[in-house]
Amino acid sequence: MRRALLTLPFALLLLLFLDQPSHYFPLPATTTTSSTTGSSSDGGLSSFFRPARPISGHAHLHSPTVQSFWRLLRDELFRLTPAVDPIHQPDDGKVTGEDQAPENLDNHPRPSLIYLDEITKTTLRTSHDAMLKFARGQASSELPFQVRTRGIVTTAGGSYFGMVVVSLRMLRSTGSKLPVTVFLDTHKDYDPLVCGEVLPDLNAECVVLSDLLDTAPPSTPLLRYQYKVFAILFSPFQEVLFLDADAFPAHNPDQLFDTQPYKSTGLVTWPDFWVSTASPLIFDITRVKAPPLAARKSSEAGILLYDKARHATDLLMALYYNFFGPDLYYPLLAQGAAGEGDKDTFLHAATVIGAEWYDVKSPVTVMGRWLNDTWHSFGMKQADPAEEWNINETSKLDPGKTLNDLHQSTLKTARPFFIHNNIVKFDIERILEPGSALFDINEAGHLQRVWGPQQDVIQDFGYDVEQVLWTELIVTACQLMTMRDCRRMKDLAAGVLAVP
Ligand SMILES: *[C@@H]1O[C@H](CO)[C@@H](O)[C@H](O)[C@H]1NC(C)=O
Ligand SMILES: *[C@@H]1O[C@H](CO)[C@@H](O)[C@H](O)[C@H]1NC(C)=O
């Protein structure tokens, strides 16, 4: 990117100018009176009024309220750090494919590969009990956010930065108007051109999380997976659609906040391909009954809908599981299965709190293409929760039915709504490098569409979302890359779209 030409002092100067009250969208009063009955920063009547001074994500992060809340949290996490050794997978134990996708869900036992002695279990339980008390107490009512605001939040630190512009353009192409906060890990990720010019034009704003964390540094530095919960917690919005940097909707997501199942639950999660591979120990330590394996898939967590007013307590528990994730809770929740990381921390937190939430039942499906008789995966599709809700309402599925029954029934699944390019990433900085899958040619010597034949894409999404993707890739390349790369992207797009 041209970013190399711009110097650090200039970047810092631009950052000062970002502190402007711009990205604020008040909600219509009628839709929120029922959804803010939970805890909110003001509580009571005042929560129905607009904040006196609408502020940006940057100003929110730099406000004394947010900084003192973080200091409170940091001190509590430090105080509750369990004095135990990091949990390792046993050398001889491994979660198998059968554990992740058992033939018969109902009879399959939970894999149990981690052993902890009684002292360790007691130490973990004591710390967890204390965190639960803290999260249920004052902390949840003091979680700072701008009451009655909605927005989209993403994390784009490090190598994820190159994807976020394409994802944002795809988001805007659906007609979405909600403001976007892009969380960067540190100032090293801050690109003056993208953060200063490109994103503001897309009603998006870069926010640097280390600005907050450095005011009260955590005991250990954070890793990539841990950033997500921080981004949700410390974004300015009350209601958040979280998207991984490589995920975007194919339809306007703004109305998801006004429809079921979000309206009645305030938390919606999307499924992974696999079932839970959590160790039985996690339920013992956190004192909840293990749900049947068939109850739901493990969660994918690249896409989440949260109302922080209704879910402050479980979000704080999710922070705890992520803060102690790499050493303790990630292994306990996944035991080394595919995608070990933050993915099940949000669902587990909601389970422990007994919070209401909705997990999308329509299975995640793969996105990709056949090329030379071989399947190439690019990413995945996640379903429309509102349509799924309506299908269930009209088909009157028995209340007792589980995910397993749903798969076996003839029930229609909802249309795909989100695209998550977790395999071949549309990273504008790398996409034109030699060896990029986009340049693959088929037996006929032609370039090929990445998401399959046009008619199938239209059937899935109602329009040719791949055509839009190429349009946005061209705009992005021509804005951020060299003239030569701009021309190469145009040629590539023309070649790919030449064959329907
Ligand atoms: C379908 O709706 C019923 C009744 O509203 C509810 O109890 C049930 O859990 C729903 N099923 C799914 C799969 O959402
Ligand atoms: C597909 O087959 C053609 C012809 O055999 C070959 O030139 C091309 O490299 C193959 N593509 C991939 C991605 O393997």
UniProtKB/TrEMBL annotation:
It holds the Pfam family Mannosyl_trans3. One of its GO terms (molecular function) is alpha-1,2-mannosyltransferase activity. The lineage of its organism: Eukaryota, Fungi, Dikarya, Ascomycota, Pezizomycotina. Transmembrane segments: none annotated. Keywords: Glycosyltransferase, Golgi apparatus, Membrane, Signal, Signal-anchor, Transferase, Transmembrane, Transmembrane helix. SUPFAM superfamilies: Nucleotide-diphospho-sugar transferases (SSF53448). Belongs to the MNN1/MNT family. Pathway: Protein modification; protein glycosylation. This is Mannosyltransferase putative-domain-containing protein. It is a single-pass type II membrane protein. GO terms for biological process: mannan biosynthetic process. Residues 1-24 form the signal peptide. GO terms for cellular component: Golgi membrane. Its main location: Golgi. It comes from Pseudomassariella vexata. Residues 88-97 have a biased composition (Basic and acidic residues). Coiled coil: none annotated. Residues 84-110 are annotated as: Disordered.
